[in-house]
Structures are given as structure tokens and as C-alpha cells.
Design a protein that fits this description.
The longest helix is centred in the last third of the chain and has 29 residues. The protein has two helices and 29 strands. It folds into three domains: 130 residues, Sandwich (Immunoglobulin-like); 112 residues, Immunoglobulin-like, CATH 2.60.40.10; 105 residues, Immunoglobulin-like (Sandwich), CATH 2.60.40.10.
């Protein structure tokens, strides 16, 4: 007895296998990109109050969100031929935070929070819930939607009238008192505060502040030890940081690493950061003053050129200069932007005036990330007396004639001798 195979079915299976092999090869050749910057959030802590709910009882469920990012974004603003770049860390934008559960009634707090979460910024979100009528352990999920990022679903254990409990562990949090805005090339002082927000004590706590060389490095001791930290307790430590003078402006995170031991001796490692916003400070000075023509004559129009240089670490913006010279003409000049290490001219077109020396005040106004600044300097303009020029030429001519006559007289006298 012969069994005849279905040629159409065999061909279909063969084609399916070929397509499957091609798809697998393409997946291996073109893997999902991992180099693009990613933004998302994590649930760093949660709290249920009361810790054990009774059936039908109302309570609160609080989750603490923190941002995580793997890159930065650079924005460029052009002003003619000049361009200014600003680099900032990516911050996630939360579109919604929802508590999902088939058993709990969510009475309030759903989708009440939306917005950006900055670096090193814990954001608590609280829900008002009603427990189900049946006792047991429940796991309602917190759904967090992140715009253009990785969304998150996080189950939270909730005890409803049972003798079971979630394992009690310590949880370390980091706070700091460093200034939000800092200048390149400065030393800043601050305090870091280690808080045990968990339910049990943490032992043998080691804190390491490694900095972000070469941009930011610790000045002095960069690590310390805390023997123990009970639940709800905190410990503070003074710390100094050095900001590199040549670093680019923008937000920088100084990493802080914390290790501690549980009651059973298990070593746990947590990480935190100190967020700093580095802003350069500009400083202007007058490098030269000149006129065109170089020698100002009475009644002749001329240009007064004052060169202004930025010797600071930040960009000078909206730079303008004014003079109170008692001469008719344009006494205000707008320069614009001056980058660090560069200079630019402030040109004043003035009418002619009488001969003499004129004292005047120059005022330069500019802004940077730290505010508006003013530089004032007293200068002198000299207008030569043009009427003295013919007399000076006659005097020079007479001296030349007298010298020539004396030379001829001495030569003839020597010949006669």
C-alpha cells in the first residue's frame, strides 16, 4: 500500500520554513538599536498605610518615582555666524500614573501626576484605595506611561488581613545641600545626607563619592563609613567638590555609591547622584582704544573704536557700550555676543570738535547666566591743535637751514686752513 504525499501542502511547509529562516537571519543582522539614548523611571520605594488593611477598609498606597536616563541632548542656537551649544541630561516626561487592580477600588490619585522628573528628584505619587472584602495578599499594578521612553508596570504587594508580611529591609536614600548653580573653576561646599527609609537597620554602611573626572572631583576625603543606621534615622557628612575651569556648561551628575549589610550579612549596593547645573560666568575688559584717523584734527569727523574682550568662562550676551563724550555723534554701540577668549569692537561715529583733551566715561553692560553686569572706565580723547602745524613746520625748516649753513661754514674754513 502506497501513501501519496500532498505536493501542495509540502510546498507550503517548505516556503514557510524558508520565510522563517530569512526572518531569523534579518533579526541577527539588524538587531534592535541600543545606542540611542533611553529615558524611563523606576519605582525606588513604596508604602502602604496602614501596613495591613482590613477587608473593605480605606488606605493609601504611595510609590516614589525616580528618573533614569542613558544620554544627553545637545541644542544649538545660531546667531549669524556664531552658534551656542547647550548640553543637558535627558529627563523623562510622565504622561500618566495609573493604579490597575481587579480587587481594589481606586478612590483617588489616578492620573493626577504628569510632567518631567529631573535628575536626583524623587517624586511620590499617592493613591486612595479601598481594600476588597476577602482577606489575602494582593498585587495591584502601578502603570507609568513615559513619553518617548520606556513605560513601566510595577506590582505593589498589599496585605489585607493576613499574618503574612513582606520581608522587612533597609532602604537608603541620598539628599544633598549643594547649590543648584555652580561656576567652572570654583570649589563648592555642601552636605550629603544618608537616610534609612526602610523598615530595619542597615549596618556597615560605606559611602563613596568618586566624582566625574576631570569635570568634577572631590576635594579631600571622598569616602566614609557609618557603623549602623536605624530605620528612619539619617547621618550627614560635609563634602567639598572642585569644578574644572574648562568644563562645558550644562547639567552633570556626580555619582555616589553606597553599600550596606543586612541583618543576615548580605551586602547590598545602592547608587545615587549629586546633580549640579554648571553655568559659566563672563567677565569683560577693555583691551584697546583707537581712532580713525589715528590723529584727530579739529573739526574733522572721526571714528572712536573701543575693543571689548571676554576673559571669563561663560558667554557674554547683549553686550552694549555707551560713552558720555561731549562731542556730537553716535554715543551708543551694540556689540551682541562675545564668546570666552574673544573680543569685539564697539564703534562710535563722531563729528569734529575743538582741539583739547576730553575726559569721558565708558559704560559696558552685558548679561550671562548669573545676571546683568556693568563695567565702567574713565578714558581721555586728545584732539590736536591744527593751527600749530605751520609754525612747527617753519621751525623745523629753520633748524635744517641753520644746520646746513653751519656745515658749509665749517667746511670752507677747513679748506682755507
Amino acid at each position: 500500500m502506497k501513501i501519496l504525499k500532498n505536493p501542495g501542502k509540502t510546498s507550503l511547509v517548505r516556503n514557510y520554513l524558508i520565510y522563517l529562516i530569512i526572518l531569523l537571519l534579518l533579526a541577527g543582522i539588524f538587531p534592535p538599536g541600543t545606542g540611542a539614548p533611553q529615558v524611563s523611571v523606576i519605582v525606588s520605594d513604596y508604602k502602604v498605610s496602614p501596613a495591613v488593611l482590613l477587608p473593605g477598609e480605606e488606605g493609601t498606597l504611595t510609590v516614589t518615582l525616580k528618573s533614569i536616563s542613558t544620554g544627553t541632548t545637545t541644542s544649538t542656537v545660531s546667531y549669524g555666524q556664531d552658534a551656542s551649544q547647550t548640553t543637558t541630561s535627558l529627563t523623562p516626561y510622565i504622561e500618566s500614573v495609573i493604579l490597575k487592580s481587579r480587587d481594589f477600588d481606586v478612590l483617588g490619585g489616578d492620573s493626577r501626576f504628569s510632567g518631567n522628573i529631573g535628575p536626583d528628584q524623587p517624586v511620590p505619587v499617592t493613591f486612595l484605595v479601598r481594600a476588597p472584602q476577602k482577606s489575602g495578599m494582593y498585587f495591584p499594578e502601578v502603570w507609568i506611561r513615559v513619553r518617548d521612553g520606556q513605560s513601566l508596570k510595577y506590582p505593589v504587594p498589599v496585605n489585607v488581613n493576613t499574618q503574612l508580611s513582606v520581608m522587612r529591609t533597609p532602604s537608603l536614600a541620598l539628599e544633598n545641600t549643594f547649590p543648584e548653580l555652580v561656576k567652572p573653576g570654583t570649589r563648592i561646599e555642601g552636605t550629603i545626607r544618608i537616610i534609612n527609609e526602610g523598615s530595619t537597620q542597615a549596618d556597615n554602611i560605606r559611602v563613596f563619592v568618586n566624582g566625574s573626572p576631570p569635570a568634577v572631583i572631590p576635594a579631600g576625603i571622598s569616602s566614609f563609613l557609618i557603623d549602623r543606621l536605624d530605620s528612619g534615622m539619617a547621618r550627614e557628612k560635609n563634602l567639598s567638590l572642585l569644578i574644572n575651569k574648562n568644563m562645558q556648561t550644562g547639567i552633570i551628575d556626580v555619582p555616589v555609591r553606597m553599600t550596606y549589610a543586612l541583618l543576615d550579612g548580605t551586602i547590598i549596593e545602592d547608587t545615587g547622584s549629586i546633580g549640579l547645573d554648571v553655568r559659566g560666568e563672563s567677565e569683560v575688559s577693555i583691551t584697546s582704544v583707537e581712532t580713525t584717523p589715528s590723529r584727530v584734527k579739529p573739526g574733522t569727523p572721526f571714528d572712536l573704536i573701543i575693543r571689548v574682550q571676554n576673559t571669563g568662562t561663560g558667554e557674554s550676551k547683549s553686550v552694549s557700550a555707551t560713552i558720555d563724550l561731549p562731542v556730537q555723534g553716535a554715543k551708543e554701540a551694540f556689540i551682541g555676543r562675545i564668546k570666552p577668549g574673544n573680543d569685539a569692537p564697539a564703534t562710535f561715529i563722531l563729528e569734529g570738535t575743538e582741539p583739547g583733551e576730553y575726559s569721558y566715561n565708558t559704560k559696558i553692560i552685558y548679561t550671562d547666566d548669573w545676571g546683568t553686569h556693568t563695567l565702567e572706565k574713565d578714558l581721555v580723547l586728545t584732539v590736536t591743535n591744527g593751527q600749530d602745524s605751520p609754525g612747527m613746520m617753519i621751525l623745523v625748516l629753520l633748524i635744517i637751514i641753520a644746520g646746513a649753513g653751519g656745515f658749509i661754514y665749517i667746511r670752507r674754513k677747513n679748506e682755507d686752513g
